[in-house]
């Protein structure tokens, strides 16, 4: 029988007997030293460990709010008491009072198709540092931290953990006029999509339904004309937008669709450098390199409405804008694929617009363009 050494140390609070000290393992490992099942057991008991170092130590927590149609779930990190309030004007007032008392470092909401707008606007008006984030970022963050289950309460805690770990920068909230302009542009895109689908059906439909399709196409065209009038009126009533639209449309190839899309969905134009604005829109080439492998550069993410309008504007500019036309022809002569060259023209056109808005200068025709 193997006997334990009598000079082995006795740890305070240990439940080991004198005969067990020589044969059992020490269990006072740090969490980062544990592996496999041991780490999993500790995670089930005390929760994720990765947020302990990133939590705010100045006494002000980070707050996450899961917004649904009827309720608001509020959680904080480091973990404290959770709250649930009604998504009504009275419930929003209660939330504002609660957060003003809590004094959080940052409050993160998930963009939920418009239900978060009233909450976000009320928090910003009350001086609470709040912002809405992309739902894809939150789900990717939850999966990366092992949170696969999804409920409103769990989502609120994930939002709070995201706020504590990432510390996203608070952005200015668009005013009501900008929200109205965005809504009109979104409705215009919906009408164009429906109109295109109905016109395509007219080419292959039977005579029995042609009358219905023709009537619907006429109605959609009338609605589109009304939306365009509302957009014209909104631009004319806003002095700053009127000046900016005239500035943007001075560039050959830029029409009202792109200029108004930029005013509504890209308020950062003119405040960032060329690399930042290209990444924000989603026309900056992304690297995919690993070791000796050099992958193809691709664009990804960004603001889809701006990118779609910029694509059509660049397509027109390759024919009617002398600077963009020569740039496109030079890229094609160098062997670039048509779509690659067109994306480069989108990025160049965006850079030009960004510089014009920053310096408040109109387009000037180049004196001499050399291919």
Structure description:
This protein is α/β, with parallel strands linked by helices and 371 residues long. The chain has three domains: 105 residues, Ribonuclease H-like superfamily/Ribonuclease H (Nucleotidyltransferase, domain 5); 61 residues; 110 residues, no CATH class. The protein has a five-stranded mixed β-sheet. It has a two-stranded antiparallel sheet with strand order 6-7. The longest helix is centred in the middle third of the chain and has 30 residues. It is globular, with a radius of gyration of 29 Å. The N terminus is likely disordered.
Write the layout of secondary structure elements.
Elements: H1 36-46, E1 62-67, E2 71-77, E3 83-86, H2 89-102, E4 106-110, H3 117-125, E5 130-133, H4 135-144, H5 152-166, H6 176-202, H7 207-236, H8 239-248, H9 256-265, H10 274-281, E6 289-290, E7 293-294, H11 304-320, H12 322-333, H13 338-359
Parallel strand pairs: 1-4, 4-5
Antiparallel strand pairs: 1-2, 2-3, 6-7
Structural class: alpha/beta
Provide the succession of SSEs.
HEEEHEHEHHHHHHHEEHHH
What's the average pLDDT? 83
Uncertain regions spanning at least 5 consecutive residues: 1-34, 39-57
> Strand portion, in percent?
5-15%
Biggest beta sheet attributes: 5 strands, mixed
User: Helical residue percent?
Assistant: 40-55%
Please tell me what the overall shape is. globular
What is the total number of structural domains?
3
What is the CA-CA span between the terminal residues? 91 Å
Tally of individual helices: 13
**In what order do the strands lie side by side in the largest sheet?**
3-2-1-4-5
Total DSSP E strands: 7
Rg over C-alpha atoms, rounded to the nearest angstrom:
29 Å
């Amino acid at each position: 029988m193997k006997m334990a050494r009598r000079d082995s140390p006795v740890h305070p609070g240990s439940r080991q007997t004198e005969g067990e000290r020589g044969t059992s393992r020490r269990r006072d490992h740090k969490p980062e030293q544990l592996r496999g099942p041991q780490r999993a057991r500790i995670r089930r008991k005390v929760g994720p460990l990765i947020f302990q170092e990133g939590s705010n130590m100045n006494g002000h927590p980070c707050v996450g709010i899961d917004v649904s149609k009827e309720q608001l779930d509020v959680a904080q990190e480091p973990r404290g008491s959770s709250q649930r309030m009604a998504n009504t004007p009275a419930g929003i007032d209660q939330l504002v009072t609660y957060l003003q008392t809590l004094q959080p470092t940052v409050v993160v909401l998930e963009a939920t198709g418009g239900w978060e707008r009233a909450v976000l606007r009320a928090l910003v008006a009350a001086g609470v540092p709040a912002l809405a984030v992309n739902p894809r970022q939150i789900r990717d963050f939850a999966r990366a931290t092992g949170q696969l289950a999804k409920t409103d309460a769990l989502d609120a805690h994930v939002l709070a953990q995201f706020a504590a770990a990432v510390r996203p920068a608070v952005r200015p909230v668009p005013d009501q006029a900008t929200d109205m302009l965005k809504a009109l542009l979104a409705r215009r895109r919906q009408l164009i999509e429906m109109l295109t689908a109905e016109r395509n059906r007219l080419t292959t439909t039977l005579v029995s339904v042609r009358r219905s399709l023709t009537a619907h196409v006429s109605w959609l065209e009338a609605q589109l004309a009304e939306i365009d009038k509302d957009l014209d009126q909104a631009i004319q009533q806003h002095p700053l937008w009127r000046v900016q639209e005239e500035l943007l449309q001075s560039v050959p190839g830029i029409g009202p669709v792109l200029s108004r899309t930029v005013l509504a969905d890209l308020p950062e134009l003119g405040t960032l450098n060329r690399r930042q604005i290209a990444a924000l829109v989603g026309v900056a080439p992304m690297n995919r390199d690993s070791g000796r492998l050099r992958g193809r550069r691709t664009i990804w993410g960004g603001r889809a409405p701006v990118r779609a309008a910029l694509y059509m504007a660049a397509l027109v500019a390759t024919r009617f804008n002398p600077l963009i036309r020569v740039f496109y022809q030079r890229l094609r002569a160098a062997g670039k694929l048509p779509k690659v060259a067109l994306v480069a023209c989108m990025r160049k056109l965006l850079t030009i617009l960004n510089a014009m808005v920053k310096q408040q200068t109109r387009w000037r025709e180049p004196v001499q363009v050399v291919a």
